[in-house]
Automatic annotation (TrEMBL):
The keyword Flavoprotein applies. It is an enzyme of class 1 (oxidoreductase). NCBIfam families: FMN_nitrolo. Its EC number is 1.14.-.-. GO terms for molecular function: monooxygenase activity; oxidoreductase activity, acting on paired donors, with incorporation or reduction of molecular oxygen. The keyword S-adenosyl-L-methionine does not apply. The lineage of its organism: Bacteria, Pseudomonadati, Pseudomonadota, Alphaproteobacteria, Hyphomicrobiales. Keywords: Flavoprotein, FMN, Monooxygenase, Oxidoreductase. Belongs to the NtaA/SnaA/DszA monooxygenase family. This is NtaA/DmoA family FMN-dependent monooxygenase. FMN binds at D58, T104, H154, Y158, S231.
Length: 459
């Protein structure tokens, strides 16, 4: 049977997110990103469309690689200004019952102990609908904000992240036994101290000295783990830790080998490769007729900011595109920024040559994924073909304008996919992990490394 098509909405607590310049479109509301009504409306729209989740990117640091200055990013609101994402979630959780939240948090700038508590708090408040996209950053500007000259080297960041994961697993899984909290009013005992254990860690990068996790057990304990980044070292990290992987690439030809490489590495670590859910990025533009969809797309394109697109691309790749001629070919450079973004427009598809002008065209709407335009039937056909060609499990849907594009998906595409039997007619019950992996799976199980840190009798 063909697998279910899962949808995440891809957004960020900033203006326009991956569609630089589109904030100037009269129907785009992302310039209201700093007020709750925008986020509340978005969450309600997504739940109406039975989206599995809202995936919130977050980038620490300003995009100042382009022209060696933040000016282009500031002028065009290229993910600058940008607010903190976790603080949005309580408000959105309060107006939804089933929508999951995959939220990005950069581990390079915060010790594990306070971070683990914040995620546990969100897991409580969302009643188990929280996921964490584990990132280590790619901008030197973030490192400078933390008092360093530049960011830690690419592969070293992943090594540090491996250790960070060990520490948060200890806190989430290894401090409180399931039966620790009694809430016994008669005896006046809230927690049985004998069932709360101290955590120790003494590693190359982190120390935890004989302390307990501050939050009582939350529904999922460890949040659903996402990872994005598909360099060889990134894939190793994903194969070990990720339950969901988010990747971007311009074509099925680029995505398919990344999917199979991660599945193979996970299998080599004893994990079930089918249980690492792969989400690839796509932008979807719908119309009731093909002409209407094409007109909508053409209208959106008139709002693209080329300078904003290059400011983003310069940040993602660490390459300053400001001095490039528009018809110049982009050549591969290896540095300490993200490698997947550079590979996408250089060596991932040897049959395709990218000029700077092509990069602007491509990044201008929806960032680094394909843009699919058409009627609900046409788009559903293309999505089915994409699933067939790539073996992904879901899409991370970027937008040109928000929430308008998500309203179109909820109203037009979701009924079509449901009719084809490829989309859930209703949400499954339970936590985000149960919705993704099945009833009774609220917590991570062996052979995932987190399960190895569990203490006491588990229920
Ligand atoms: C599709 C995609 C989405 C990403 N989202 C974020 C993000 O929201 N915040 C962030 O700091 N890094 C993000 N990254 C960067 C990755 O986490 C990673 O640091 C970067 O891609 C470098 O790793 P790589 O060379 O293995 O790709 C993303 C990367 C990809 C490919």
């Amino acid at each position: 049977m063909a697998k279910e098509i899962r949808l995440n909405a891809f957004a960020m607590n900033c203006v326009a997110h991956q569609s630089p310049g589109l904030w100037t479109h009269p129907r785009d509301r992302t310039a209201e990103y700093n007020r709750l009504p925008y986020w509340i409306d978005l969450a309600r729209t997504l739940e109406r469309g039975r989206f599995d989740g809202l995936f919130l990117a977050d980038v620490l640091g300003v995009y100042d690689v382009y022209g060696n200055s933040p000016d282009a990013a500031l002028r065009n609101a290229a993910q600058t200004p940008s607010n903190e994402p976790l603080l949005l979630l309580s408000a959105m959780a309060a107006v939804t019952q089933n929508l999951g939240f995959g939220v990005t948090s950069n581990l390079s700038f915060e010790p594990p102990y306070p971070f683990a508590r914040r995620m546990s708090t969100l897991d409580h408040l969302t009643e188990g609908r929280i996921g964490w996209n584990v990132v280590t950053g790619y901008l030197d500007s973030a490192a400078r904000g933390a008092g360093k000259d530049k960011q830690t080297g690419h592969d070293d960041r992943y090594d540090i992240a491996d250790e960070y994961m060990e520490v948060v697993y200890k806190l989430w899984e290894g401090s409180w036994e399931d039966a620790a909290v009694l809430r016994d009013r008669k005896r006046g005992i809230f927690t049985d101290p004998g069932k709360v254990h101290r955590v120790n860690h003494d590693g190359a990068n982190y120390r935890i000295n004989n302390t307990i996790h501050l939050s009582e057990p939350s529904p999922q304990r460890t949040p659903v783990l996402y990872q994005a980044g598909t360099s060889p070292r990134g894939r190793q990290f994903a194969a070990r830790h990720a339950e969901c992987v988010f990747m971007s690439g311009p074509s099925a030809k680029v995505i398919a080998p990344r999917v199979s490489a991660i599945r193979q590495e996970a299998a080599a670590l004893g994990r079930n490769p089918a249980e690492i859910l792969m989400f690839s990025m796509m932008t979807i533009i719908l119309g009731r007729t093909e002409a209407e969809a094409k007109e909508k797309y053409a209208d959106y394109r008139r709002h693209i900011s080329p300078e904003g697109a290059l400011a983003l691309m310069s940040g993602w790749t660490g390459v300053d595109f400001s001095g490039y001629d528009l018809d110049q070919q982009v050549r591969h450079v290896q540095n300490d920024a993200g490698r997947s973004a550079m590979d996408n427009v250089t060596r991932a598809d040897p049959d395709r040559i990218w000029t700077v002008r092509d990069v602007i065209e491509h990044v201008g709407i929806g960032g680094a994924g394909p843009v699919v335009v058409g009627t609900p039937e046409m788009v559903a056909d293309k999505i089915e073909q994409w699933f067939e060609a790539t073996d992904v499990d879901g899409l991370n849907v970027a937008f040109a304008i928000s929430p308008g594009d998500f309203e179109d998906i909820a109203d037009m595409l979701v009924p079509e996919l449901t009719k084809r039997g490829r989309y859930k007619p209703d949400y499954a019950k339970g936590t985000l992990r149960e919705k993704l992996f099945g009833a009774g799976r609220a917590r991570l199980g062996a052979p995932h490394p987190a399960a190895g840190y569990r203490v006491g009798k588990t229920g």
